[in-house]
Design goal:
This protein has 4 helices and 7 strands; from the N terminus they run βααββββββαα. With 146 residues, it is α+β, with helices and mostly antiparallel strands. A 7-stranded antiparallel beta sheet has the order 1-7-6-5-4-3-2, with helices on one face.
Length: 146
C-alpha cells in the first residue's frame, strides 16, 4: 500500500472546515487531480453515501466510485475503487489557534497483475500530495476570508 499524507493549518474554524471537506463533492474545488466528483446519494453526508470521481493520474483519467465508510464530528474516511486501484481517503480536522489543522491521508493499493508495479508507482502517487494539501489550505483560507 502507498500512503500519501500531510497536514495543513487553515484560518477556517474546525466546524466549517470539516463541514466543507466532508461534503466530498467539494473535492474537485481543492484537489487538482480530481476534476470530477459527483455525489450519487441524496441528503446530508452519512456512512454509506456514494460518490463518482474522475481522477487524473499519469496523464490518464480514471473513474472510481467512493463510499463513506467512517464519519464522526471531525473525521471522514472513504473507500474508492475501480478494477486497478483501491483507495482510502481520510480527513481529520482539529482546532488550532483561531483556525484548524487538517490532516489528509490517501492510501492506494494496486489491484490485479499491475500490483507488481506498486513500488515503481509510488513517486507518481507522492506527486499528488502537495497540490492536494495546498488546495485544501488555499480553499479553506479563501472561505475564511469571506
Amino acid at each position: 500500500m502507498i500512503t500519501v499524507s500531510g497536514t495543513v493549518e487553515t484560518k477556517l474554524s474546525p466546524e466549517k472546515a470539516f463541514a466543507f471537506l466532508s461534503e466530498f463533492e467539494n473535492t474537485s474545488d481543492w484537489d487538482p487531480a480530481t476534476p470530477v466528483m459527483d455525489k450519487l446519494t441524496a441528503g446530508p453526508v452519512a456512512v454509506g453515501h456514494r460518490y463518482y470521481a474522475e481522477s487524473e493520474f499519469r496523464g490518464k483519467r480514471q473513474s472510481l466510485e467512493y463510499e463513506v465508510i467512517e464519519l464522526t464530528d471531525r473525521h471522514i474516511k472513504l473507500r474508492g475503487a475501480n478494477k486497478t486501484v483501491t483507495a482510502f481517503d481520510s480527513i481529520d480536522v482539529e482546532p488550532s489557534g483561531q483556525g484548524s489543522l487538517v490532516k489528509y491521508t490517501a492510501e492506494f493499493s494496486i489491484n490485479g497483475p499491475a500490483k507488481i508495479l506498486q513500488l515503481l508507482l509510488k513517486p507518481a502517487f507522492m506527486s499528488l500530495r502537495d497540490p492536494a494539501l495546498n488546495g485544501i489550505r488555499d480553499t479553506l483560507n479563501a472561505l475564511a476570508a469571506r
